[in-house]
Amino acid sequence: MMHDFKALIPQFESLKCSYIQLRFYKEISLDYIKSIVELLKKEKSRIVSIDFIIPYHEKFKLEELNILLSENSRIHSIIIFNSPYDKSFEPLRQQMGYIMLTARNIINEKNCGIIKDEYFYSNIKLFSESLHHNTCLNRKISIDKDGYIKNCPSMSASFGNVKDTTLEEVLDQPLFKKYWNITKDKIAGCKDCEFRHICTDCRAYIEEPENLFSKPLKCGYNPYTNEWLKWSTNPLKQKGIEFYGI
């Protein structure tokens, strides 16, 4: 389902939203990406950074993608999944405007919440946020492929649909903010992990679904032995795997 992006822009503006990410599980054209960025220009949007996550298609040419990035300073990244190979390119300007190809195939919203050391990100902003807030869900609002408004597209709980509910109305619901202040220091396992302040959390998939402070399901690291193991074969995680149908 393609949402009416133009109708959503005024809502982004009223919430003072500066960063957005658009995920596409099916093929889209570069012209569509251009139309999104042009719309933001036309509306004089306050959005300063936009990420596109799109499936690979052989018609995509690196030269065309670089031109798109050079002409549109709002684009932070274009991540292309299901690529024939893994490769990251240097950003065009100060950590903005980069292309990343990944062989991993992102079929749907369940391909999320994976914890790996290669995803660790160390900077003052993330570290400071992690001390007081959740590093994934703090002040984040999402719209899934069917228009349901959620904390994260991977979560089952929704707070309305964009067809009849505004983003502001959802933010006014106290329950929507219940994850915002769950820090790594409150989460089982994570609170003893040396990587907790450079690791992005996941509350969508957790080991014990009934426990709000349970360890992320898709993390295979054991902070007590300093070992990385395959999370999907861990017997302690089978309950969560079955619950989420992964």
Automatic annotation (TrEMBL):
InterPro entries linked to this entry: 4Fe4S-binding_SPASM_dom, Aldolase_TIM, GRASP-with-SPASM, Radical_SAM_PqqE_MftC-like, rSAM_sf
Boundaries of every 4Fe4S-binding SPASM domain copy: 137-194
Source taxon at top rank: Bacteria
PANTHER family, A to Z: PQQA PEPTIDE CYCLASE, RADICAL SAM DOMAIN PROTEIN
Protein name as annotated: Grasp-with-spasm system SPASM domain peptide maturase
Protein species of origin: Flavobacterium pectinovorum
Lineage per the UniProt record: Bacteria, Pseudomonadati, Bacteroidota, Flavobacteriia, Flavobacteriales
